[in-house]
Amino acid sequence: ILNVEQSPQSLHVQEGDSTNFTCSFPSSNFYALHWYRWETAKSPEALFVMTLNGDEKKKGRISATLNTKEGYSYLYIKGSQPEDSATYLCAFMANQGGKLIFGQGTELSVKP
Amino acid sequence: ETGVTQTPRHLVMGMTNKKSLKCEQHLGHNAMYWYKQSAKKPLELMFVYSLEERVENNSVPSRFSPECPNSSHLFLHLHTLQPEDSALYLCASSQETGRNYGYTFGSGTRLTVV
């Protein structure tokens, strides 16, 4: 059974704080790791698709790193803003053609 | 709008009813997916279609019946559901299955079975 764990489950920060959270996944048969942002009453939105060990991706104030050998990815948000409040999902694909397995998400709340 | 449209947004149905959820994309994607999210649980894959052919049926009960008449449309037909089937049903599409393409999701249908 493929298990994707995200921590923490929820996070409350002040505007301007930088924050990070973790996605853990099986280290064998890795193919891809996805990050999505899901705002309330909207659709999940793709942030990053990462495939190479050591990969780092950046989109504005949000960045992500990937370690496939130890089975984890970090998502960083620099200088959090209230509009960053959302649930951040990671999803793991074990091999080409495999299913995308989602974690339960980290719910981020940024207070002004 | 993300490019994936789901209707209806909300649906309340009795256990003896038959209803259908609709998903539409005009992104030129070849793969479409149905996911279910129950309260406090991760997104759970139900069905995968690639070029209108079902390639994955993730042990979903037969009271859920998918249909993909063309690469732009995906339906989920519902009949004799149970209250525990109440959940958010999300449709997604991607360029192809199983490759490193991000998924584009719809806003979901919030289903309540009474």
Task: Give descriptors for this structure.
heterodimer; A: 112 residues; mainly beta; 6-stranded mixed sheet; 5-stranded antiparallel sheet; 11 strands; 0% helix; B: 114 residues; 7-stranded mixed sheet; 4-stranded antiparallel sheet
Model description:
The complex is a heterodimer of chains A (112) and B (114). Helices cover 0% and strands 54% of the residues of chain A. Chain A has 112 residues and is an all-beta fold. In chain A, the strands form two sheets. In chain A, strands 2, 4, 5, 9, 10 and 11 form a six-stranded mixed beta sheet that branches. Chain B is built from no helices and eleven strands. The relative contact order of chain B is 0.33. With 114 residues, chain B is mainly beta. Classes of the chains: A mainly beta (112), B mainly beta (114). Chains A and B meet through strand 4, strand 5, strand 9 and strand 10 of A and strand 5 and strand 10 of B.
Entry summary:
Chain A is mostly beta strands and 112 residues long.
What's the total helix number of chain B?
0
- The shape of chain A is globular
Contiguous low-pLDDT stretches of chain B (5 residues minimum) are: none
Major sheet summary line of chain A = 6 strands, mixed
**Shape estimate of chain B:** globular
